[in-house]
Fold each of these.
Amino acid sequence: MTLLRKFLLRLITTAVTLFGVAVIVFIVIRVVPGNPIAMMLPPGATDADIARLQAQYGFDKSIFEQFLIWLGGVMQGDFGQSISLRQPVSSLVLGRLPATLELSVVALMIAVVMGGALALLGTLYRGTRTEGAVDISAGMALSIPDFLWGLVLILLFGVLWPVFHISGRISPALNTDFATNFYLFEAILRLKFDVVADLIAHMFMPALALAIPLAAIIAQLLKQSLKETMHLDYVTLARTKGYNENHIITREALPNAILPTLTLVGVQFTFLIGGTVIIERLFSYEGLGNMAIDAVINRDLPLIQGIVILFALLFTLVNLVVDMLYAVLNPRLRHA
Amino acid sequence: MSGYLSVRNLTVALQTGEPILRSVSLNVAAGQVHGLVGESGAGKSMIGKAVLGTLPRALHVISGEIWLDGVDLLKLSPAARRKQIGATAALIPQDPLTALNPSKRIGPQITRRLVDILGWSKQNAQARALELLDEVHIPNPERVMRSYPHELSGGMRQRILIASAFAAEPKLIIADEPTTALDVTVQKQILRLIAEMQSHHGTALLFVTHDLGVVSKVCDSLSVLYAGKVLEEARMHRFFMHPVHPYSAALLAATPTYTNPIDSLLPVSETVIEAVEQEVLEHDIRASR
Ligand SMILES: Nc1ncnc2c1ncn2[C@@H]1O[C@H](COP(=O)(O)OP(=O)(O)OP(=O)(O)O)[C@@H](O)[C@H]1O
Ligand SMILES: [Mg+2]
């Protein structure tokens, strides 16, 4: 009963959020200077040509009317037609989404593993130089934004020691017969390890660039939380039972220390997804973010609109998943 | 005099050199209950923590010996010490609300160490846990084993912690003010339960409290601690008949008994405190030579 109510409330807030985002973006991109139609026409086009196309895309109507038309289409699953690519926005956007999702999830996994390991290391050696080293590296990782990490990585692993691909998502020779656009997921399921290796070799640097700042945040937050937990009575009691320090940290303290970290990491993960826009551009990775930049350059209003809505939906979904995880991991909420 | 637990000349200090325990010696004989009394901050908990290897990181053992089951813990490697403590001793903590892991069910919190550390089979550990929960008068033990700590009352949780402490039949249990965090009504039940379990299992018990009245009920002997220094170690009868140290006598006078009703209680007098402080100071001077 309460669970159902919570779920409904969530659904409503999500809908309202998305609507608000849609309105704001709709207005902003139309107020900003730049005419999409003029940009798509060849230099010799007449004013009459422009006016005809303006009318075809509905740009001659008022913003309010345009919005209603757009909203009516969205209700039927039609997000309009991309001006620059002349294809339905929905299929364009959904076609690119898997690439960005895979990149973000791989980045998240790298961040969790790196950040988690650093936090555990720092806790195990708390009060020593090792903890100091963890603090310093986390501080350094955080003081450089993800796209600069991207440049650093390109320099290291693309130029000085070229072991990873610096651009694209997959080598053209291997880019065959995928049933979905979830290349990595599909290749793993079909046990095509040469393809997996190639995908990883492309994805590694952009994912790492996205992951490093998040890893630093996880390392700092989780270490702090772990250190506080280590003083609690049940941890002391576990010590007297003969468990070693590793067990105490990972089994007694960690499950409880994760909780306060989780919500913040959820928020940070949405920032990471936002970071894909620039990182994808930097590494010519064919994802949503890269498409978003092209769309902005071309003033492709319907496409921008579609991409922004999808990003907003993604963010709310991430928050939902975090809340659910929190409830699953916290027994005090499980029964509530 | 030497006991199952024998602490000898144990000095513990802060990094700054400020002593917290000053050449503490005390003995807990096998199967006996030894009380450890003293005012707040005297260092009672630190003695327990030193024995169980859970001293805060800011504190260090400077010198002394801690003999447990015939082995000097301070001469062992950390791993061996942990093993020795886990196999022979257990703790009944002060605050049952914070001493159980909130993210784990009760069952595993009792049984896991029996399996992990002591190598029992899962079935044996499970059976043992049920038997003990029954012994500490917990109704419907199967259900409690599946519960999370937050679903149980403080008294219930303290019973569980007592059961858990006795689970591996330790030969020594340290109970650090095991009732102060509980309701007055529950306090008596828990106290009775600990005494009952102790005599039934024949465990040596180091009972930390600041309540001489409680000590008189459950202990066979006691040590009086002031500022990290043991002022007097005595058998129960002797102590209540003829306290040797003036501070002990003052403490006794400040404790309500049948013959000493509440109205006639005296606070520990200034002169006694000054004398004890002087004694502690002299000890420090001797120790620094
Ligand atoms: N982590 C710590 N760092 C520094 N000093 C500490 C720390 N923990 C305790 N102390 C000091 O050690 C002394 C003894 O503390 P302890 O907890 O053993 O007292 P206690 O006799 O158990 O008192 P209470 O009856 O209040 O529990 C106190 O003076 C306290 O200030
Ligand atoms: Mg104490």
Amino acid sequence: MRAKSILTLCDGPTCIYKNSRAIRDALETELKNQGLSDEVGIHISGCLGMCSKGPILIVNPGYTIYGGVTVQDIPEIVQEHLVRRRPVARLAVQEDHLYNRFFRIFGDVDFFGRQMRIALRNCGIIDPEKIDDYLSVRGYEALAKVLTAMSPREVIDEVKKSGLRGRGGAGFPTGLKWEFTARETGNEKYVICNADEGDPGAFMDRSAIEGDPHTVLEGIIIGGYAIGAAKGIVYIRAEYPLAIQRLEKAIAAARENGLLGKRILGSDFSFDMEIRLGAGAFVCGEETALIHSIEGRRGMPTPRPPYPSVKGLFGKPTLINNVETWANIPVIMLDGGEWFSTVGTETSKGTKVFALAGKVHNTGLIEVPMGTTLREIIYDIGGGIPNGKKFKAVQTGGPSGGCLPEEYLDTQIDYESLAAAGSIMGSGGMIVIDEDSCMVNLAKFFLEFTQDESCGKCTPCRGGTKRMLEILTRITEGNGKEGDIEKLERLGQMIKKASLCGLGQSAPNPVLSTLKNFRHEYEEHIFQKKCRAGICSALVTYEITEKCIGCGACRRVCPVNAISGKRQERHAINQETCIKCGQCFTTCKFDAIVKA
Amino acid sequence: MVTPLDIIKKKRAEAVARIIGRGYLSTKRVYVGMATCEIAAGSKEVMEVFRQSIAKGGLKDVYLSQKGCAGRCNLEPTVEIVEEGKIPVKYGKVTPERARQIIERHLKNNEVIEEWLI
Ligand SMILES: Cc1cc2nc3c(=O)[nH]c(=O)nc-3n(C[C@H](O)[C@H](O)[C@H](O)COP(=O)(O)O)c2cc1C
Ligand code: SF4
Ligand code: SF4
């Protein structure tokens, strides 16, 4: 049975010090005594960033926060709140923070109970097309605070203090990037928001813009103030018409309200913004290629240094950050960099948005604190694997990332931990794979994508990925040869080392990581001509078992007349003529046809 | 001197007043998910059912608004109903037909349709 309420207990150092472990024990005992153990789930969370009010206990649905909880309070909370459904006012704390502020959870605690919403705090809550809605939830207050009371230096220090790192993939410390751009002299600088989002299947940035465009704008304007730029550009792919329309509307409303344009909110700071549409090439998400594309040149990467912070758009210092990175900025300004840095792990602060897809019950967009484990995401939030299938792997980082098998499920979400496990954080794609998928075929899918998207500038990326793809294709078609695995590894390493941009440098990752973690599947394909998932059709054979009652349905459906047999007698497939289309397999009503 | 912070606080107060003017304090508030994903799942038609019902006067004291994607992709379109003093509810996989029933049963007759809740 699924939990009806979820209690989140903070397990940060301060709360542990203040006795949260004893509180957990008391809770478990009390729930058992009341017979509620099945209905109420206890979730232990990393630091929730409310240390001064600890120990913290949050009850969902409803998002009631209890602070300063003692072991003696537990029976009362359980009796009043969980049994009689009356929150205990005496212990409830009112937090005037921005994150999770309007976090109404409804009955949906399994999905939302373990999330923490900073970047997506307003998504799905306010009307994204009305600036009034955004203003009413302290919108543009961060900008006003910055313009009223903070110097550009102080803004940058706050971002540095927060520990925020770029959410576009590389994870570069945001504050440092701002500092590098700010210290360049010259009065013409640019700020860019990277909303190219080219990973297949990714939609984090699109949803963030569609759900709350003003947050992104506010972040960008603050960035402009911090580095001394007067102009911002949002680079967004043309395939996102609704996001573009909402951005346009938001920019117009911000202008009308004096939040963009000359002398913003009566201050000395002037800043304006425009939208540039990308044609959707994956490589145009790479920052140097993106900049060339805005300049009207071909979207091809160029070597760094010089970094955009020194010589970017039109040769001027340019600050470029990802949509999600920008969306964190207003919260950092209002709730403080110090608070932000209490969320997450040693090296990775705050939260990360993921597009959870593939073979999980709850697919969707989630935002979790760094340090959450893959297991918690897949099984607690995602609800596990449907149809009783077995988990096989989780793919993170899209075409630049890797596949992690079961042994890695307890890996924490964190730039370093994911890299150490052999994948990457990436921009937030997360695909769950079950036993029905073939890892060789999956690697081939990603390589097809990068091969196709390679801009062709460097030979290793252009030619090398093509060679790799040829080898993979032949393996999946049953023509793999001894030595192919080693060849793939050599080529992969070479492409990684010799390519100019991140596309080429990371293109071999899906292949290399599956070679590392699922080598046996490659070996089966090559030496036993077998695809255990039954995906690579050339390696599949169909056979008719004794379950066959001789109805003849398969015989009639077979396009090449490979099936023979008398009525009411067991049929047989002629393997020579069979083209492995699988139609007989899906047609048979008696499960008499098996794939091997 | 008037600071940016003073200006924004004034703007917020005005925004809140306008939102209330649009009927926010109505006894029931209905939010329909309208992002690319929700629209692809059919939320525009659902929105239209609510809009029509209000326009024709069948539904009174209801504040209707759109919202972005909350992340519940496999259960879209979603519709949330917030009522003062009650635990808010969220319906998943709402079709125009379900929307009509939600209007009749939930909004007009205060019946929460349990089997469609997320
Ligand atoms: C092939 C390739 C594609 C990329 N695509 C994106 C993208 O779609 N969105 C994005 O924000 N960053 C993308 N990046 C990363 C950008 O180059 C850059 O690091 C990022 O925009 C910096 O912002 P951040 O520090 O906020 O992450 C891509 C990089 C490469 C190599
Ligand atoms: S690595 Fe590939 S995508 Fe990047 S510049 Fe070279 S050819 Fe182009
Ligand atoms: S797999 Fe296709 S070709 Fe082979 S026996 Fe079945 S129906 Fe015929």
